[in-house]
């Protein structure tokens, strides 16, 4: 690249030098200086100048020749270029072409205004020229008029003037406003065509076009409209604009269908595709409305929700928006616990907006996972920090998640269906039942809860929960015991339990009363009830635990006392009682564990015996091993070989390190309080 320009410039100035006698002396001296400089001598100044020149040349060529890359600016569709068409078959209702007014069963529809056109190219070109689409922005004004569109009414439409059916005739008739979605007969409307549009029943979520200011940025073919300014409407006391962030990688084609529906119901500038723009750029729009709190609807799985919450952490907005969820993922554990359901099943998008509009604010605890790894010569490596919203797992459950993650990365096209994904999880779980990759996990890690060391029984996995939904909707932390189950009997032993923490003797198999109070009269009436005979004959779990009846008999005979630390529920110690039979009959069976809550600043710690134990938990044939509750948890990984870990479904392999989990803060989540309409 350097030889050709140098030779070219040298030949040019050589010719100028030969004709230099006819030029002024000053010009001749400049030409001589330039000609001498272009002769390569290897001087430091010459090297620096040539490097700078070719750097500028490469930047200029990349700007002119390379395609434009993804930008952090919010790129909007250009309304001057016409409608946003997509191909569709009109099989759900009778449809007529808005241009030729002939019935059609297939054609194109605008995802913003709902205009329908047949497949004829003439009609498509006329549709862009003669029919206006939804305007993204208008000049400053206090209000706007209705934008009426003729024909193709939704089924069972009613005229908002007379209350009679609209669009019932077999032709293109009657009118519909693309903003407020009111329908009216052409005769009934009359002089009402000039009245202002109030944006309909979802006006508190819609950004009116007259409050949006756009500007044109970019150069040549890269020019685009971006949002420059947002102002609140005149009557904004109940106004809380909604931003929709959809991840097309979640839920197959469901995200694309929802984006089309929301662009029709809202202002198209409020709907964003996360495959085209980063969530930080979208959420930064909240800065344009410093006095109004926005709402955000995340259409995706738990990973997408975590992505958006992490983006909020980076922005540090003065008014953090409220987050609602439209679950499109596989597990959707977070969406389950705050009322948004186990997955999107084709609900009407208008019902989703209604639920967002009437949702209740719920704080969600968030946690920081810090992973410290020892380096060479006992030097500590930099901490790795992860934010946890749902749960953290190490062992057999993380093995299944890691295998699924590797398969999805190698063949992403196969894992777009929720049912297929669950079947894949089942297959990898069955594989780990045979392999038992994390066998003897209790020998490879150490557990501390609130600074108290916990002796672990024979385990293959540990789950640290923030929400009471795990593995695709399994409420693992329950206050009731499953009849005949023996899994919860193995209680951890603490090495550092003081005598002050020793409580009244209680058997681990007794049915506890979570509603017991401090009244001694009521407590004295409670007694230990042995399990039914049929439950005493059940076989032990694969981990080797004894049956429930034998454990109760051993506890009564040996006078086993369980000590619980009310702060963590983790410290348990064995002691001898002078009169075990009398104490066992008068024991207080009040549970030492509180109910699970995602806003109490506590974590629930669960033990898993094997991958088979996970399957039994999913179908309610077993209880988990409840290790306790804590405000901070510390795990020390002693294994030389990496152990599988996962946080909120994102797996990795972790070598010898110290993993500490502490409280980070709370996020503003919206919980659905109304049933789907």
What is this structure, in a nutshell?
With 677 residues, this protein is an alpha+beta fold. It is 26% helix and 19% strand.
Topology (SSEs and partners):
Blueprint: H1 3-18, H2 25-38, H3 44-65, E1 85-89, E2 106-110, E3 116-118, H4 121-130, E4 148-150, E5 175-177, E6 183-184, H5 186-189, E7 212-217, E8 224-230, E9 242-246, H6 254-265, E10 271-273, H7 279-283, E11 295-300, H8 302-315, E12 322-327, H9 333-337, H10 349-357, E13 360-372, E14 384-388, E15 391-395, H11 396-410, H12 418-435, E16 445-449, E17 452-454, E18 461-465, H13 520-524, H14 533-536, H15 548-558, H16 580-585, E19 603-608, H17 611-618, E20 625-630, E21 633-637, E22 643-647, E23 650-654, E24 657-671
Parallel strand pairs: 9-10, 9-11, 11-12
Antiparallel strand pairs: 1-2, 2-3, 4-5, 5-6, 7-8, 13-14, 13-24, 15-18, 15-22, 16-17, 16-21, 18-19, 19-20, 21-24, 22-23
Helix pairs in contact: 1-2, 11-12, 12-17
């Amino acid at each position: 690249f350097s030889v050709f320009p140098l030779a070219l410039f040298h030949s040019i100035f050589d010719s100028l030098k030969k004709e230099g006698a006819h030029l002024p002396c000053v010009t001749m001296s400049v030409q001589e200086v330039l000609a001498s400089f272009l002769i390569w001598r290897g001087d430091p100044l010459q090297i620096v100048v040539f490097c700078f020149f070719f750097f500028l040349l490469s930047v200029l060529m990349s700007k002119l020749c390379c395609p434009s890359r993804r930008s952090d600016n919010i790129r909007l569709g250009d309304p001057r270029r016409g409608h946003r068409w997509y191909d569709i078959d009109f099989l759900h209702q009778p449809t007529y072409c808005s241009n030729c007014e002939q019935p059609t069963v297939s054609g194109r529809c605008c995802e913003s205004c709902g205009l329908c056109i047949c497949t004829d190219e003439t009609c498509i070109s006329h549709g862009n020229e003669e029919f206006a689409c939804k305007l993204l922005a208008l000049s400053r004004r206090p209000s706007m008029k209705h934008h009426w569109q003729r024909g193709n009414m939704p089924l069972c439409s009613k005229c908002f003037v007379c209350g009679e059916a609209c669009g019932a005739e077999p032709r293109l008739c009657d009118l519909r406003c693309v903003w407020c979605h009111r329908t009216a007969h052409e005769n009934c409307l009359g002089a009402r065509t000039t009245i202002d549009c109030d944006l309909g029943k979802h006006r508190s979520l819609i950004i009116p076009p007259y409050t949006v200011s756009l500007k044109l940025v970019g150069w040549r073919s890269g020019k685009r409209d971006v949002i420059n300014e947002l102002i609140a409407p005149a009557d904004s006391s109940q106004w809380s604009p909604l931003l929709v962030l959809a991840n097309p990688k979640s839920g197959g084609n469901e995200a694309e269908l929802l984006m089309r529906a929301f662009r029709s119901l809202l202002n198209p500038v409020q709907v964003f595709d996360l495959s085209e723009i980063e969530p930080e750029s979208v959420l930064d729009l909240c800065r344009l409305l410093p006095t109004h709190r926005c709402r955000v609807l995340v259409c995706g799985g738990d990973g997408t929700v975590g992505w958006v919450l992490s983006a909020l952490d980076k922005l540090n907005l003065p008014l953090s928006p409220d987050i609602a969820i439209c679950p499109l993922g596989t597990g959707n554990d977070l969406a389950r616990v705050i009322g948004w359901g186990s997955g999107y099943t084709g609900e009407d998008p208008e019902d989703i907006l209604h639920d967002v509009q009437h949702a209740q604010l719920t704080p969600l605890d968030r946690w920081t996972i810090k992973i410290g790894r020892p380096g060479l010569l006992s030097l500590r490596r930099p901490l790795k920090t992860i934010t946890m919203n749902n749960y953290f797992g190490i062992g057999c459950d993380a093995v299944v998640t890691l295998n699924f993650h590797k398969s999805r990365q190698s063949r992403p096209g196969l894992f777009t269906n929720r049912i297929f994904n669950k079947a894949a999880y089942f297959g990898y779980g069955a594989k780990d039942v045979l392999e038992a990759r994390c066998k003897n996990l209790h020998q490879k890690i150490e557990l501390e809860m609130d600074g108290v060391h916990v002796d672990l029984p024979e385990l293959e996995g540990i789950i640290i929960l923030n929400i009471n939904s795990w593995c695709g909707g399994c409420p693992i932390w329950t206050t009731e015991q499953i009849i005949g189950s023996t899994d919860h009997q193995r209680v951890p032993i603490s090495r550092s339990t003081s005598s002050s923490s020793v409580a009244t003797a209680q058997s681990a198999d007794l049915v506890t009363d979570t509603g017991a109070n401090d009244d001694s009269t009521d407590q004295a009436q409670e007694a230990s009830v042995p399990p039914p005979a049929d439950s005493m004959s059940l076989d032990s779990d694969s981990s080797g635990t004894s049956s429930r009846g034998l454990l109760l008999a051993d506890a009564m005979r040996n006078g086993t006392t369980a000590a619980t630390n009310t702060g963590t529920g983790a410290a348990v110690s064995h002691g001898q009682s002078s009169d075990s039979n009398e104490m066992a009959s008068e024991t207080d069976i009040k549970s030492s564990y509180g109910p699970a809550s995602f806003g109490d600043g506590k974590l629930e710690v669960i033990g898993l015996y094997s991958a088979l134990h996970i399957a039994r938990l999913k179908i309610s044939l077993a209880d988990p091993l409840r290790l306790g509750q804590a405000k901070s948890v510390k795990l020390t990984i002693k294994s030389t070989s990496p152990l599988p870990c996962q946080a909120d479904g994102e797996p990795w392999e972790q070598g010898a390190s110290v993993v500490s989990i502490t409280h980070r803060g709370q996020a503003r989540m919206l919980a659905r309080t109304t049933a789907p309409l």
